[in-house]
Amino acid sequence: MTNIKNDLYNTLNTLVSHHTVIGIGSGSTIEGYIPYLAKYISENELAVKLVPTSMKTERKLKEAGLKSTDEIDRIDVTIDGANQFTDDFIAIKGGGGSLLREKIVGYFSESIVIVASDNKHIEELHHITLPVEINAYMHRVITDMIEQTLGISTVLRKKEGEIFITDNGNYVLDCFLPDISDPSLFERKLMAIPGVLETGLFTKHINQIISFNDDEIKTLYKERL
């Protein structure tokens, strides 16, 4: 796996070398890459701006000697992980609870590159768990409305017995979905409910997926229309 990871990180470094404002995502794969990123930037004296998608990523960048910022006019590319992804360039994110910031960074990126192990690949959006960030204020009423409107079951995320709090002071609902036949319509219905701040459903801006296992790396490119 070590050689594969080195090849993977070299692939990501190539992406970095062609851009100046880069979103750095969340998750174990991205965290593992950050020290290699720091070394690559230092050795090549690159003048890049790094935009973290979570407070944890910001800390990891700082530990590696890298500065981060959110004071930018644009983001060229965001490199991020995923809980699950499809060949249709749809990703489910937010397992770590950073979905609101991930969605903001992703939305304002020219493109998103998803990097994930191939066991996170799914054929269709069937029987998935979708994280949804909601306001803590009146969260029980918001939860009831989500369940009634969409006919789904949810669980309020907890950590060590306490309600999980996101970087922005909100709560996360893990929504159990039997099927999403129309992801865009489903997301619009969710976002129309007051108190729903963001969903972990990423349907836009992803134009490259890099998946890997112990033996190989595969790259899927989205065709430009």
Write up this protein:
The protein has 225 residues and is α/β, with parallel strands linked by helices. The protein folds into 2 domains: 133 residues, Rossmann fold (3-Layer(aba) Sandwich), CATH 3.40.50; 74 residues, Alpha-Beta Plaits (2-Layer Sandwich). Helix content is 32%, strand content 32%. A 6-stranded mixed beta sheet has the order 2-1-3-6-14-15, sandwiched between helices. GO terms for molecular function: ribose-5-phosphate isomerase activity. Keywords: Isomerase.
Q: Concise description?
A:
With 225 residues, the chain is α/β, with parallel strands linked by helices. The chain is 32% helix and 32% strand.
Placed side by side, the strands forming the largest sheet appear as: 2-1-3-6-14-15
- Give the C-level CATH assignment of the largest domain: Alpha Beta
Q: Specify Rg, calculated over alpha carbons.
A: 18 Å
Number of helices: 6
Largest sheet: 6 strands, mixed
Low-pLDDT runs of 5+ residues are none
| Beta-strand content | 25-35%
H/E series: HEHEHEEEHEEHEEEEHEEEE
The overall strand count is: 15
First CA to last CA: what distance? 36 Å
Overall 3D shape: globular
* CATH fold annotation of the largest domain: Rossmann fold
How many discrete structural domains?
A: 2
Let me know the average pLDDT: 94
Give the fraction of residues assigned to helices.
25-40%
The assigned CATH architecture of the largest domain is: 3-Layer(aba) Sandwich
What structural category characterises the helix and strand content?
alpha/beta
